[in-house]
Backbone:
């Protein structure tokens, strides 16, 4: 996937806000979902951190975005969104797996 | 001079993937971040900024990577379809519906922040999807590495992923119908989506009503003919889907479901895994 990562300079605040917000969202939706089905607190926390990792599907959406045609072929969609996705996935991939290992202790 | 031989570029690319996968296994991590970094370094926006040479600098290599990446997506979704558990979906549908619906809330942060920054509905929808979907590949690997498989928490996570898999299939069909078509009027976009959906309905009809067709298609003693028939069918269906403006990934997912229900599942997984892995790697370039 041909993506110019330098493009994220312009959207750094967006990236950071989304990383923090989406981590909390995934954690709490998964945590309370698990609680609802009567898992204990430790297991529910594991489900919470377990779902944080993003990966291949986010990149597939980005690849599709890069190929947009017609009136959707604007730089925001064909360049910025893919650059956002690649940097977001890198961060969430590392964050998610590290948090899972941390929870294992 | 180095950049004039496409095969050399492809060789460099595969070596980089091998090194990335090696590093991933050494650190006992998923290979995805390592592949992303390999692709970044060797691509036009990595070493391509410094030298004339980068992977994909000749048109030959560039086209190969483009089509290879597409095959990577097709095989990834095909495998996802094969391992998609209709049984689990049927048995736990109530629970999956509840956790999955709560999980849909995860579209919100991406859509909200995306809209705030870009003031554009389509961009917001894209960022919403990117942020919503968790990684089946990395999460399944982590579950195994940490020894959490067959715990109640692993079941919870896998049930969520089943729902997300379905959600993303619907999402991709809608998205590709919208952003990959030149059409601008709502009516023509809708008729576009209609044709694509009709194709899907026919495909799903065959999967449910005539599963024996798929069994017969793959029934051969020769393992060579087996591979050709399987890949040929996947390619043809994905291609027709694309002609009709439907996501090739979505079509491959349903072929995966159909093939996964045959008696040839184990043989398919074994025979086609190297395609999935190789083209899946090229996807990162």
Residues:
């Amino acid at each position: 996937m041909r993506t110019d990562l330098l493009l994220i300079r312009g959207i750094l605040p967006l990236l950071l806000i989304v990383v923090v917000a989406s981590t909390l969202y995934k954690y709490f939706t998964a945590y309370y979902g698990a609680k609802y089905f009567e898992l204990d607190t430790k297991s529910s926390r594991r489900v919470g951190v377990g779902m944080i990792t993003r990966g291949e599907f986010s990149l597939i959406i980005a690849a599709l975005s890069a190929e947009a045609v017609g009136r959707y072929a604007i730089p925001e969609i064909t360049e910025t969104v893919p650059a956002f996705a690649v940097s977001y996935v890198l961060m969430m991939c590392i964050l998610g797996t590290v948090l899972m290992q941390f929870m294992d202790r | 001079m180095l950049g004039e031989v496409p095969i050399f570029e492809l060789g460099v690319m595969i070596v980089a993937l091998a090194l990335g996968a090696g590093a991933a296994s050494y650190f006992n991590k998923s290979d995805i971040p390592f592949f992303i970094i390999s692709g970044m370094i060797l691509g036009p926006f990595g070493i391509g900024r410094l030298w004339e040479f980068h992977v994909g600098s000749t048109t030959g290599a560039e086209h190969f990577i483009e089509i290879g990446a597409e095959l990577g997506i097709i095989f990834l979704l095909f495998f996802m379809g094969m391992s998609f558990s209709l049984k689990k979906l049927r048995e736990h549908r109530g629970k999956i519906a509840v956790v999955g619906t709560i999980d849909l809330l995860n579209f919100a942060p991406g859509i909200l922040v995306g809209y705030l920054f870009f003031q554009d509905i389509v961009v917001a929808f894209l960022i919403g999807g990117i942020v919503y979907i968790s990684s089946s590949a990395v999460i399944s690997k982590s579950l195994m590495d940490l020894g959490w498989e067959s715990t109640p928490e692993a079941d919870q996570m896998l049930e969520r992923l089943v729902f997300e898999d379905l959600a993303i299939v619907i999402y991709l069909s809608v998205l590709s119908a919208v952003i990959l078509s030149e059409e601008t009027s709502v009516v023509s976009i809708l008729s576009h989506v209609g044709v694509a959906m009709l194709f899907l309905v026919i495909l799903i009809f065959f999967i449910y009503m005539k599963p024996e067709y798929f069994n017969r298609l793959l029934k051969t003693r020769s393992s060579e003919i087996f591979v050709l028939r399987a890949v040929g069918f996947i390619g043809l269906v994905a291609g027709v889907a694309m002609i009709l403006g439907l996501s090739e990934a979505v079509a491959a997912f349903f072929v995966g479901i159909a093939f996964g229900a045959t008696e040839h599942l184990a043989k398919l997984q074994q025979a086609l895994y190297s395609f999935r892995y190789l083209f899946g790697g090229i996807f990162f370039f």
Summary: Residues 75-104 of chain A form the longest helix (30 residues). Chain A has one domain: 15-104.
